[in-house]
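hi! just following up on the protien thing from before. the input was this:
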Amino acid sequence: MAGPRIAVCSWSLAPQDPADLLEQLERLRIDAVQLDLTRLSAEPKIWYPAMELLPSAGVDIISGMMAMEGEDYSSLASIAATGGVRPDATWNVNCTRAEMVAELAETMDVRLTTFHAGFIPESADDGERHVICERLRTIADGFAARGLEIAFETGQETADTLAAALEEIDRTNVGVNFDPANMILYAKGDPVAAVDRLRPWIRQVHVKDAVPTTEPGTWGREVPVGQGVVDWPAFFAAVRTIDPPVDYVIEREAGDDRHADIQAARTLIDAHLGV
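and the predicted 3d structure came back as:
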C-alpha cells in the first residue's frame, strides 16, 4: 500500500484465541494487526487457525512480534539482565525460537517481525556489545534467507547507541520499530529527536504514551495516548516525513479499559493523518 496503515498489537487485547482476537478487532473497527508470533509458535493447536481466520475475515497481519525466552520485566534491573539476546543462558533457546518464528512468518507472508534486542552496551569497545551484535546478525541472516525483515524495538538504549549498533550489524533487512513511550519509560531520551536520529532504519511505529519516572532507576508509567509527555504533533510531523511511509500500530499494555484507550489512540492518529 502507498499510505500508512493503522493496526493494533494482538497482545494489547489479551485474546484467548483467534476467534476472540477477531471479535475484538471487529468491535474496535480495526482491520490490521501486529500478531504475537511467539504465542503462535508455542500454542499451535490454539493459534494456528489465525493464519486462515484473520485474512479470510479481511484482517491484514502487517507484522509479527517475537518475545525472547526468560525476559523479566518486573524491574529495570531485571529486564536489563534478561532482555533480548543479551543473556548467554537463553541464547541457544532464542536462536532456535527465531528460526521457528522466521519459518512461521514466511508461511504467513508476514514480512516484518519486531523484538527487543536487549540493552546494547553504549561503548563500541565493550566486548558484550560485539557478542550481542553478532547474535542479532545471526537472527537477521536467518530472516534474510527467507526474504524477511526484522526490527528492533526502541527504548532499551539511546538512539545514538542503537544507531551505532545498527551500523555495526550492517544488514539491509534490519530496522527499527519505533516506540516513543519506551524512550520515556526507560529514560533514554526525547522521542522526537530519536525519530530524526533513527529515521533511515524506522520500519514501523508503535503509538503509545508514557510519563517519566521521578525516581531514577525505576520505570516510567504508561498512560493512555494523549495523557503522557509524547509531543504528538511533533512526533507525527517527524514520522510523516519518513519515505516510504510506515505503519502505525497502537499498543496498550496497561489500563482497565484498553478498548477505550485504543479507540482514543485511533482518533488521535486519524486527526493527525487527516483521515
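The first strand starts at residue 6 and ends at 9.
Residues 6-273 form a domain with the TIM Barrel fold (CATH 3.20.20.150).
cheers
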